[in-house]
Design goal:
The complex is a heterodimer of chains A (about 110) and B (about 325). Chain A is mainly alpha-helical. Helix content of chain A is about 60%, strand content about 5%. Chain B has a four-stranded mixed beta sheet. A three-stranded mixed beta sheet of chain B has the order 1-5-4. In chain B, strands 2-3 form a two-stranded antiparallel sheet. Chain B is elongated. The chains are: A mainly alpha (about 110), B alpha+beta (about 325). Strand 1 of chain A pairs antiparallel with strand 4 of chain B, so a sheet runs across the interface.
Chain lengths: ~110, ~325
């Protein structure tokens, strides 16, 4: 059993350049360009050399790959699905917040 | 080994057309895709659907499967009859369905194993004959808010697909001891390099991604890096001001409540949230004034006295006088 495992946390400080991102997600740079053109990714920086990608981008890339492979969704469909998924996530978290508030009201 | 009713899995009749098979699969795959469906058994269902489709979309495989007979019930103990696949030509053929990473023992007893590398290969573009990157694995890890606050050591056991010398795929439990640094937040992911599915060639293992989920806490809730706590206080503490003790994830601290505080007032304890080595979080305390029940005659007397001596109309802004 290995004890020394390389562990990386993706948080708000994560920033990868295009090359590292491609290696990390095992995709070609062209795929990243396509996702940017579709508005799925919005890296920091003005040109490919200064682009920096964060935790959100990495997650979006990985979900895009899975949706395309598993469900044969095309790029515009992937973009739509990702937006809707994020909206559902936001609704879920505000719903659970509301439920917590209601529970608290009942206790008081 | 249990018999699997692939028709039931896709919710179709045994005489369904190939188009109906495809339609049923597409519909269910969208519904149970683990990125879309958040229920805990979605991934399992998605795999089952993928396996059923793998067999039924292929006319040869479907015919072979149908030959086993319709007398079998799902879940029934099953052993393939000897030479059952004679006359069919699906052995060694490429599988088309890229979604499911593993098929059941039932599937493998009938159709053999499949390569676990389909997904990685599609996008990788490297020479597949000498180097194959293993699959990335994704899992969730539930930790407590205290674990995140302090950083923690966790032990996780995962079923990991492995390939033996003959190229057969099997799953084996794999235990990992990992150190999760302090200040991780819900939904954040940790990448463990090389801890995913096994590949072929040097440094070819896939990676393991662990998504952080917080176990619910009796008092605190987390909003990204900030911790929220509703703090009950007495009416006199609220009116006169007080220094009271407040629990935080790092232990009890003292909080000074200013006079004339009201329910809903939000106060910040700086740096008492989920702080990583570079980013810090705060704890927010929301005050909630609790009205004591008058337990006896003297308590009731006290309330009456307040009513007589204090001119207080909390409904003035509503235009009512009493």
């Amino acid at each position: 059993m290995k004890t020394d495992i390389q562990c990386t946390v993706f948080d708000e400080t994560s920033a990868y350049c295009l090359k590292d991102l491609c290696r990390l997600c095992r995709v070609h740079a062209q795929f990243i360009h396509d996702l940017i053109d579709e508005g799925i990714l919005s890296p920091q920086g003005n040109n490919p050399k200064s682009w920096r990608f964060g935790a959100v981008e990495i997650k979006r890339i990985q979900i895009s790959i899975r949706l395309q492979e598993d469900l044969q969704v095309n790029l515009p469909g992937t973009a739509l699905a990702l937006d809707l998924l994020e909206e559902i996530e936001e609704l879920r978290s505000s719903k659970s917040l509301l439920e917590q508030l209601h529970a608290l009201e009942k206790r008081v | 080994m249990e018999f699997k009713d692939y028709y039931a899995t896709l919710g179709i009749e045994r005489n369904a057309t190939q188009d109906e098979v495809k339609r049923a699969y597409r519909k269910l795959a969208r519904k149970f895709h683990p990125d879309i469906n958040k229920s805990p058994n979605a991934e399992q269902r998605f795999k089952e659907i993928g396996e059923a489709y793998e067999v039924l979309q292929d006319i040869e495989k479907r015919a072979a499967y149908d030959k086993i007979g319709s007398n079998w019930q799902a879940g029934q103990d099953f052993k393939p009859p000897p030479n059952w696949d004679k006359g069919f030509e699906f052995q060694g053929r490429e599988y088309t369905q890229a979604g499911a990473s593993q098929f059941s023992d039932f599937f493998e007893s009938l159709f053999g194993t499949r390569s676990p590398f389909t997904r990685a290969q599609t996008f990788h573009g490297q020479d597949p004959s000498f180097y194959r990157k293993g699959q990335d694995l994704h899992a969730k890890i539930v930790i407590s808010l205290e674990d995140s606050f302090r950083g923690s050591k966790q032990t996780v056991t995962l079923q990991r697909p492995t390939v033996d010398a003959n190229g057969h795929v099997f799953t084996s439990p794999h235990t990992l001891h990992i150190t999760i640094p302090k200040g991780v937040t819900e939904g954040q992911r940790i990448r463990l390099e090389g801890q995913g599915g096994a590949g072929i060639g040097k440094d070819s293992n896939g990676d393991l991604y662990l998504e952080i989920v917080f176990a619910s806490h009796p008092h605190f809730s987390a909003d990204n890096r900030d911790i929220n706590l509703t703090l009950p206080i007495t009416p006199w503490e609220a009116a006169l001001g007080a220094t009271i003790q407040v629990p935080t994830l790092g232990g009890t601290v003292e909080l000074k409540i200013p006079p004339n505080s009201q329910t809903g007032k939000k106060m910040r304890l700086k740096g008492r949230g989920l702080s990583s080595s570079t980013v810090s979080g705060d704890q927010y305390v929301t005050l909630a004034i609790m009205t004591p029940h008058p337990a006896n005659k003297s308590d009731r007397e006290l309330y009456r006295k307040m009513a007589e001596t204090m001119s207080f109309n909390p409904r003035r802004h509503l235009g009512v006088t009493s």
